[in-house]
Design a protein that fits this description.
With 186 residues, this protein is α/β, with parallel strands linked by helices. Helix content is 38%, strand content 18%. It has a five-stranded parallel β-sheet with strand order 2-1-3-4-5, with helices on both faces. Strand 4, helix 4 and strand 5 form a beta-alpha-beta unit. The longest helix is centred in the C-terminal third of the chain and has 22 residues.
Length: 186
């Protein structure tokens, strides 16, 4: 039985380096591990308890929850927007946190990685994403980190999937996440 990891990318930009990083994680995942990129975060409405009503949850949010409910772990990719994570990623975490204590993220291993233009690679945003995912009930792997600085220059002429240093680091992250998720998948 393979371990299923859901990748949530906090950038909606077509040429997003974080999306490329997620693609690299999927491409270089170890045998027996499936990293699936979730498509459709842009369609998920902002979380609002008034619309989170059983039987009438918006279709995009229900699909996110359904897909997330069937995975063993989460790998979040966060750029840094104004010193914090993008709203689209926080919104996904909010939808996955409900119902509180029993949401699709509850108890599942979560790792957060990413790349950003700045010299620290988005560490503030990634720290915020870890905090939000933990409060939402995820089992955050606090010691599993990957922040790649200077994304615009580093990936100007190379896709992250073709950068041997990046793929080695990503493979280590996915391996560590898989180790935490494997008992649940068995």
């Amino acid at each position: 039985m393979s371990v299923r990891i859901l990748a949530l990318v906090g950038s909606l930009r077509a040429g997003s380096h974080n999306r490329q990083l997620a693609e690299a994680a999927a491409k270089h995942a170890p045998a027996g591990v499936d990293v699936e990129l979730f498509e459709g975060l842009a369609d998920v409405p902002f979380y609002n308890e008034d619309i989170d009503v059983e039987g009438s949850v918006p279709a995009a949010a229900a699909r996110l929850r359904e897909v997330a409910g069937g995975v063993d772990a989460f790998l979040l990719f966060s750029p840094e927007y104004n010193g914090t994570m993008p709203a689209v990623l926080k919104n996904a975490i909010d939808w996955l946190s409900r119902p509180f204590g029993a949401g699709a993220i509850s108890g599942k291993p979560v790792a957060v990685v990413g790349t950003a233009f700045g010299q620290y690679g988005g560490v503030w945003a990634q720290d915020e994403a870890r905090k939000a995912a933990g409060l939402a009930g995820g089992a955050v792997l606090e010691d599993v980190k990957l922040s790649i600085p200077a994304s615009l220059t580093r990936f100007a002429e190379i896709h992250p999937a073709d950068d041997t240093e990046v793929t080695a680091a990503l493979t280590e992250v996915v391996t560590r996440l898989t180790e935490k998720a494997a008992p649940a998948a068995a």
